[in-house]
Task: inverse folding
């Protein structure tokens, strides 16, 4: 009977050893998965930083572009005003020229 108990205990021990080996394999798999997850996390963090830097650069270009547009619009307004003033001068000259011709025709 003692031999039977010893065999039974030995079988239980083998079962526990197999279970322990399976647990060890699972632990290795989990460690590998955790390492891969950490690597992916680092890559994603780097990518986020790159995207943030690109966003800041794009934002700066946008603001610079907006300033240029404002300056250009102001320049356009100034040129349009200048064109209008020149047209008024030309009209005055044309009117004076017309009056001069009328005077010449009336007096000569």
Result:
């Amino acid at each position: 009977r003692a031999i039977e108990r010893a065999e039974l205990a030995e079988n239980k021990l083998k079962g526990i050893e197999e279970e322990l080996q399976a647990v060890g394999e699972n632990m290795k798999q989990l460690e590998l998965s955790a390492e891969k997850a950490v690597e992916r996390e680092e890559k994603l963090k780097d990518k986020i930083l790159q995207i943030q830097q690109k966003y800041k650069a794009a934002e700066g270009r946008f603001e610079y572009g907006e300033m240029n547009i404002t300056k250009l619009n102001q320049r356009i307004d100034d040129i349009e005003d200048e064109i209008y003033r020149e047209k008024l001068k030309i009209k005055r000259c044309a009117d004076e020229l017309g009056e001069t011709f009328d005077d010449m025709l009336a007096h000569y």
